[in-house]
Design brief:
Blueprint lengths: L2 H6 L3 H10 L6 H16 L4 E12 L8 E8 L2 E6 L4 E8 L4 E4 L1 E3 L7 H4 L4 H4 L3 E6 L10 H10 L12 H11 L4 E4 L1 E2 H8 L9 H17 L3 E5 L10 H12 L4 E5 L7 H15 L3 E3 L12 H14 L4 E5 L4 E5 L6 H4 L3 H8 L2 H10 L9 E5 L13 H8 L3 H12 L4 E5 L3 H8 L4 E3 L20 H16 L5 H8 L1 H6 L16 E4 L20 E6 L2 E5 L2 E2 L19
Parallel strand pairs: 1-4, 1-5, 6-7, 7-8, 9-10, 10-11, 11-12, 12-13, 13-17
Antiparallel strand pairs: 1-2, 2-3, 5-18, 14-16, 15-16, 18-19, 19-20, 20-21
């Protein structure tokens, strides 16, 4: 090779070193030898060591784009490099050959706020790839006053814990200090604001009460809440009129947060409820999302198309309206939801008093609203241990056993258990699930706690969505039924919700982003939980990393607690 050609292949810093040494070299051959050695040494790629190296995976970065074969290098909590990383090694290495590598999944509606206190491992969700639990549907874990703490303590059942915080920010930091495997974020709930300020009274707030709720909202946003939530089908959240919600949402808008809602009706007045959310978004000038978007009750399934049209018309006008869903045709809430509205107005304590009054009890029985037939109502949770023999039975079966009407069974059960009683309602259309999933603005949730299938959690049943919603998406609806592609599914699980929540450096596989990462077998990932046996983990997820730390390794929990508080855009320390 001519000397010029040789020089062109040697890095500049080495040529400079040879040039400085040349006067000391009397033999041209020695110069050539020196240059050749320099070429071999200088051009060899140095070995790079990462804390964690994921090798040979099919990488889906969260954007919805096609997968590519590559590696990911992680240092501390951050993705340091992506691509084909030659001469790289890791202190901890993951061979992802034949596996899919994706960002950690975001659970847009999680009820893990209590289960994480009892067991921070979040096993039901971690084993599906969830790395961020978004809490606070209507009710948030703060701000609390003394009366609220007393009520919370009195309502505890199988999950018992001390209440060692008052504000929402203090609760999130409490979880982080205690140790959790997943990251955590939360909305501020309007029901919590009302309880703190007004209690359960069904009336508009006074001017002073409204200002107090606004101030509490601002404080929560500055503590890191991601936005305002409502659950308008329940009390006292539903006591708020639209104008009250708009006023609170305007405070959230100042912090660039979002509004999210279990809308006021998911049955016959579904369209009015969707329009209310759209109006709040428009008038308060902020993004809005519909929790577990659905049409409930077979007489109302036809309304879903019109509801979708309303959302898409609003989006075309420039309103950032989105939705989320879980992957089942059954919901889960209290048996007390079948009682007339007046019987629930003052909360559970008021309901119990009314049941004890003969005339009010008789009126309740006449006005029970069976929007779901008794044979489609499954018992899953009781407070009273003696009542738990009813778990797994339908309301129709209990009614027959007791030789009473279904309405009488509802009132008797609530009175005997002194609770709302957790049930599953089979009320939705499988065809509508597929229709909703195909919507480009649809994110995914569980609407459930995250449990371990042992110990205290086995004292109650639950909805299988607590163990299977995300795996069911990837197994049943992507791999088996091909409703959407794997790329689309990962986008719905990651970048879409992270963008909606305005989270920094989450929801994608990019250099400089936090290393929340899943590694799974797309050919085998499966939900195993059923309505009969819900306490069964999903399978097929091999590795889960949270902030760079392996929490799931070869399908088993490592016992690590690297989860952190993920704060919204209004966090007062956001600039730090």
């Amino acid at each position: 090779m001519p000397l010029g050609g040789l020089l062109s292949n040697i890095p500049n810093f080495i040529i400079f070193k040879v040039y400085k040494s040349y006067p000391l070299m009397k033999n041209t051959s020695l110069v050539l030898v020196y240059l050749l050695v320099a070429l071999l040494v200088g051009c060899a790629s140095p070995e790079t060591t990462y804390d964690v190296l994921i090798k040979n995976g099919q990488i889906l970065d969260g954007s919805g784009e096609k997968a590519y074969l590559g590696d990911i290098g992680i240092n501390a909590d951050t993705i340091a490099a992506l691509g084909k990383l030659e001469n790289a090694k890791g202190i901890f290495e993951i061979d992802a050959t034949g596996l899919t590598v994706a960002p950690g999944f975001i659970n847009m509606l999680s009820w893990a706020n209590e289960s994480l206190i009892v067991d921070g491992r979040s096993q039901g969700d971690i084993r599906q790839g969830v790395t961020l639990e978004v809490l606070g549907e209507g009710n948030s874990m703060g701000p609390l006053n003394d009366a609220m703490k007393k009520e919370m303590k009195a309502s505890q059942s199988t999950l018992n814990y001390a209440i060692e915080w008052s504000t929402l920010g203090e609760y999130l930091e409490y979880l982080e200090r205690k140790g959790v495997s997943t990251n955590i974020a939360s909305f501020i709930g309007n029901a919590t604001l009302r309880k703190n300020t007004i209690g359960y009274e069904n009336r508009p707030p006074t001017a002073a009460e409204m200002e107090t709720m606004k101030q509490l909202t601002r404080e929560a946003m500055e503590e890191g809440a991601v936005g305002l939530s409502t659950s308008l089908i329940y009390v006292p959240s539903g006591h708020a009129k639209t104008d009250e919600i708009i006023e609170l949402a305007k405070e959230v808008s100042k912090y660039n947060g979002m509004y999210i809602s279990h809308i006021r009706d998911e049955e016959g007045k579904l369209l009015e409820a969707v329009n209310e959310l759209i109006s709040i978004s428009e008038q308060a000038n902020l993004a809005a999302e519909i929790y577990h978007f659905k049409a409930s009750g077979d007489a109302n399934w036809r309304l879903l198309d019109s509801a979708i049209t309303l959302v898409e018309t609003a989006r075309k006008k420039g309103l950032p309206i989105t939705t989320d869903m879980y992957m089942y045709n059954a919901s889960s809430t209290g048996l007390n939801m079948l009682l007339p509205e007046w019987a629930k107005e003052g909360g559970h304590a008021a309901t119990m008093k009314l049941i004890g009054q003969e005339t009010k009890r008789a009126q309740m029985l006449k006005e029970v609203d069976f929007h779901v037939p008794p044979e489609n109502i499954l018992m899953v949770g009781f407070r009273n241990k003696k009542m738990r023999t009813n778990i797994g039975k339908t309301l129709a079966e209990i009614s027959k056993e007791r030789n009473i009407s279904p309405a009488e069974a509802i009132v008797d059960l609530i009175q005997e258990d002194d609770s709302r009683i957790q049930v599953v309602y089979f009320s939705m259309s499988e065809d509508n699930i597929k229709k909703k999933l195909a919507l480009p603005y649809m994110a995914i949730c569980s609407d459930a706690g995250s449990y371990t299938n042992e110990g205290v959690f086995l004292e109650q049943s639950t909805h299988p969505r607590a163990y299977g919603s995300f795996a069911r998406l990837l197994g049943k609806y992507v791999r088996e039924e091909k409703v959407i592609s794997l790329e689309e599914a990962i986008y719905k699980l990651t970048m879409l919700p992270a963008t909606n929540l305005k989270l920094k450096k989450r929801g994608a596989l990019k250099e400089g982003y936090y290393a929340d990462i899943t590694v799974f077998d797309a050919n085998t990932i499966t939900d195993n939980a059923t309505f009969e046996k819900p306490h069964q983990y999903a399978t097929g997820m091999q590795y889960v990393l949270v902030n760079g730390t392996p929490v799931l390794e070869q399908g088993e929990h490592t016992g690590a607690f690297p989860g952190r508080v993920v704060r919204g855009p209004g966090w007062k320390d956001n600039a730090k």
